[in-house]
Amino acid sequence: MSRLLEIQDLTLGFPDKAPLLERVSLHVDDGEAVALVGESGSGKSLTIRAALGLLPDRAQVSGRVSVRGLDTLTAGRQRLMDLRRKDASMIFQDPRAGINPVRTVGDFLGETLRFQGLSRTEAAQKSVAALEQVGLRRAKELTGQHPHQLSGGMLQRVMIAAALLNSPKLLLCDEPTTALDVTTQAGIVGLLREQQQARGMGMLFITHDLNLAASLCERVYVLRNGRVVEQGATQEVFLAPQQDYTRQLVNATPVIDLDKVPAPAVANGMPPLLTASGLSKRYELARGEILTALDDAGFSLPEGGSLGVVGESGSGKSTLARLVVALETATEGELTLGGNRRPQRRLAAAERKVLAKDVQIVFQDPYLSLDPRIPVGRAVADVFRLHQHQGRHEALASARALLGRVGIAEERCDALPRALSGGQRQRVALAKALAARPRLLVLDEATSALDVSVQAQVLDLVEELRDQFGLTILFVTHDLAVVSRLCDNVLVMHQGRIVEQGATARILEDPGEEYTRNLIGSRPRPLWDEEPATA
Known about the structure:
There is one protein chain. This protein is of the alpha/beta class. The protein folds into three domains: 3-87 and 168-252, Rossmann fold (3-Layer(aba) Sandwich); 98-167; 258-522, Rossmann fold (3-Layer(aba) Sandwich), CATH 3.40.50.300. The chain has 19 helices and 20 strands. 44% of the residues are buried.
């Protein structure tokens, strides 16, 4: 068995900064799948980028990084390009960031193949074959489409096909399934495992999902603050961790625990806060085609309740959330909030301001919902000024107090969003939403891109804030373990329709629909059999 990747004492930093990586050592052998796990900021992506010579020019690096005998820290540009074309490939976390949005899928794949000397016709034929190999139907038709016409799961398969075009011996995967729903994730993981075994590739897989690492990889390295703190066979490390940090990661990994599902909210004779009846949303596409994103949805959410909305990508979850907060207008049906029926038209500015006092939304990516030019304290203060009519000084004081309640230290209130971690930005987004003092809080995949420890902290915070503020919660997510922890009722959506709904405990324990059973069965099963490691 040959050694494909060997990293020895890799230390990396920038001028006048503390090192980001300190004496990191790991290896990947031929045909072996190895996981690299740790929190955001632990140095996982820097480590994997060093393997392909993708480090910033200002980086100060020592140690040795060897891929098939080539030292990528000292190799010239041409030798690195040859390595990436012939021996090693990388799959990034966000497929949309890795492909030019104005180019077709066929152009994207064909460029790589033409570098290998293939003619345009040969490249087109091999592109179709590569898409079919990763399980995409109508592959020839897909080569003529642009990235925005594909779902996240489809586009990630395109990126995998691109990474495999040069038949690499080493495949580097940087969180390639983080924001995908469970069934799409299961398909991508199965595809990677199948391709790895069929081609005899070595694979280094970065993830914060320990269940996923356990299901895919034989060995694991645990990285914390730029240092490897634990390593070994995956089962040994996760079942009997030796380091407190590893135990914390294991214990923070969400699992479905029916004993901890919240009890349903009691209506006490009061009407529901939110009801939907016959709710549909259709979009007119090019050439007169009609896309039905939501079809005849009906449900109710009592005051103080928490409703989970689950399903695959494209099932209509986010469309439903956007209708609730009036970012979209329903094509048909009724939506009633607090007894007030929503008009079937786009709301005027004054109407939106009134609605925002009752309903707020927190999106998946907090960075996109915060103005990068405005300090986070002022961003929250602006909400107090708009909705609570506070003066500038009073609003800033209120903002600092609220940010403190969600775990943002006072000295961070003057920071710009880019200076905060992903978990801190999500806390700011929560504070911004709560500053309006809403009755209903909509969370649209608000924890799916966070690592397990930060996700656990944010979920703890949401539970605490729900109790403190008496919030009603609509939680859109693809993680059934999160639903079991936070939601007393659940809607299961498929292709725009609600296929099942009811008490969370009942549906998770005895689902009535085959689709729901598939969702539950697609989750990677914890190695610890849903019993986290003890200290």
